[in-house]
Amino acid sequence: MNPSDFPISPPRAWVEIDTAALLENLAYARNAAGCGIMAVVKAGAYGHGLEVISRTLESARVDFLGVANIGEARRIREAGVSSRIYLLGATWEAEREEIVARNITPCVSSLEEAAAFNAIAARRGVRLAVHIAVDTGMGRGGFLAEGIAENFGTLAAMDSLEIEGIASHLSSADEDEEFTWRQIRSFEETVEQLGGAEKFRWRHLSNSAGILGYPVGCRNLARPGLMLYGISPIPGFQESLKNVMSLKSRVTLVRTLPAGHGVSYGRSFVTARPTRIATVGIGYGDGYPRHVSGKGAEVFIRGAKHPVVGRVTMDQIMVELPDDSDVSCGDEVELFGAHIPVADVAGKADTIAWEILTGITPRVQRVYLPENGA
């Protein structure tokens, strides 16, 4: 039988991604930061789709795209994106040859890592731009701020490296103001200790919380991630950002269950009276968190919110409807989006919003708006 004989069904679960809202959030980040922008697109652009989001951000002329590993950088390049790409963490030896070959900009966290890059670049006859990572308190990578000066001369003597930048990372900008100021002062003191701002083309420290909550200082590059996707790590700024992702599904079944009837695994919810129940075609296999079970989670159908009842299963959830509900099979269901903030879902799952976003699985179709987006 010819494949064209088979109709293509609409998706049962999908996310709508508003690229216009993404660009509005980028504009807000630019204005708030007052400096260059490294748009963070790691983890599939926080679940929004690495290739499309990278092309969209390139169209807005960001200075860098920030990724977690060379695999993400490779995918961006293969998608036709030519913007500069920065690796946000330390590398191991088997990755470094490709990093140099593709002219990806790494941060370096040790003399061993720098020496390896220098040797590869020398062998290839190129000069690799690198940024020095400084650990001001994150504890995840970088030269310790207290000892970097004694290593800087060795780094500067590596002829095949161009030390064009210096960077650190704020660990608690959305939680601990006092410690954040200590990190900012440590970074600025380190820059001065190594020759001052004019020594480095790029100086960057601020993530989304740093951009929103603290002044720029000596930095001339900022690294927004979360705020680009419409979520503020500092609650007071949430209204200034636009929602980018909406998770949706459809009602697959509506029934009235009798009193005393269990709903889902473990009978954690039992009907007290005849109850209208809608089954929705999405579950934790799609990234809707199982941990919201029994926590008062809601979905939005036909202009109203309705409670999720029973345990979230791999492929389906159940929703309680009022007796006079006109919800029917095929109706669109919003799990989070314009009417239900993803932060509310995350709170009920006892996690953070960005874990929910990055946890949306590949079987959930990404739909970009406008439809012909970047």
**Count, helices:** 11
Question: Would you identify the CATH architecture of the largest domain?
Answer: Alpha-Beta Barrel
SSE ordering: EHEHHEHEHEHEEHEHEHEEEEEEEEEHHE
Major β-sheet, in short? 9 strands, parallel
Name the average pLDDT. 96
Describe the structure.
- The structure is a single chain.
- The chain is of the alpha/beta class and 374 residues long.
- It has two domains: 211 residues, TIM Barrel, CATH 3.20.20; 125 residues, Lyase, Ornithine Decarboxylase, Chain A, domain 1, CATH 2.40.37.
- 29% of the residues lie in helices and 25% in strands.
- It has eleven helices and 19 strands.
- Strands 2, 3, 4, 5, 6, 7, 8, 9 and 10 form a nine-stranded parallel β-sheet that branches. A six-stranded antiparallel barrel has the order 11-14-17-16-15-18. A two-stranded antiparallel ribbon has the order 12-13.
- A hairpin with a 5-residue loop joins strand 12 and strand 13.
- The chain starts with 12 loop residues before the first strand and ends in a 5-residue tail after the last strand.
- The relative contact order is 0.14.
